[in-house]
Amino acid sequence: EIVLTQSPGALSLSPGERATLSCRASQSVSSNFLAWYQQKPGQAPRLLIYGASSRATGIPDRFSGSGSGTDFTLTISRLEPEDFAVYYCQQYGNSPFTFGPGTKVDIK
Amino acid sequence: QVQLQESGPGLVKPSETLSLTCTVSDGSISTSYWTWIRQPPGKGLEWIGYIYYSGSTNYNPSLKSRVTISLDASKSQFSLQLSSVTAADTAVYFCARSRWAYGAQDYWGQGTLVTVSS
Questions:
Q1: Whole-angstrom Cα distance, residue A47 to residue B105?
Q2: DSSP type of residue B53
Q3: Using an 8 Å Cβ cutoff, are A72 and A7 in contact?
Q4: Which of A47, A95, A96 lies at the smallest CB-CB distance from B104?
Q5: Which residues contact B3 (CB under 8 A, 6 or more apart)?
Q6: Among B47, B103, B111, whose Cβ lies nearest the Cβ of A96?
Q7: Chain A closest-CA separation from residue B10 CA (Å)
Q8: Does A84 touch chain B (CB under 8 A)?
Q9: Would you say residue A84 has pLDDT above 90?
Q10: How many angstroms away from the CA of B48 is the closest CA of chain A?
């Protein structure tokens, strides 16, 4: 089973600032099948990025994903008030599909 | 726009079987992979498994001995059964869709909280 580690565990930033979130895998993720999700309290996760760098339908271009192999990054170029949430990475290239523990982005 | 809705009991007794159903709104049940994911209160996400229209399934080994996912295309529904539950199975259970077997989950239900308690 691939274990995903996310850092930092929490990030305090102001609106307009840049957020950089990291996801590291215990072994190479097959075909870079790495996704990022955003989850707000009481809501289901929302798919942001798939295939490490492809934005899902309707996702603003301030969200971008990069990386390959074992190291992946989600960047939010300029935080909007609605972006404060928990972000999870998931690998779906090797079964069982696994999630990271999440990074909470809150308002400074 | 695919819509998914979970339904089922919110309270299950220890050692019994948890049963949930997910209804798919748009008739795409025969063309996608249908997944269950859970989230214990205040914790992270755990992938449970998926089913395809053909009946093929893929389960998380950590739950495989207790999990059954089934599909009823005539009702546009798929279901989760988790047997011999304990308090550790208390979680919000989400149903979700993937376009492919190895695919991210692009549509999710709102989730339903299931509490295991006597």
A1: 7
A2: T
A3: no
A4: A47
A5: B24, B25, B26, B107
A6: B47
A7: 16
A8: no
A9: yes
A10: 8
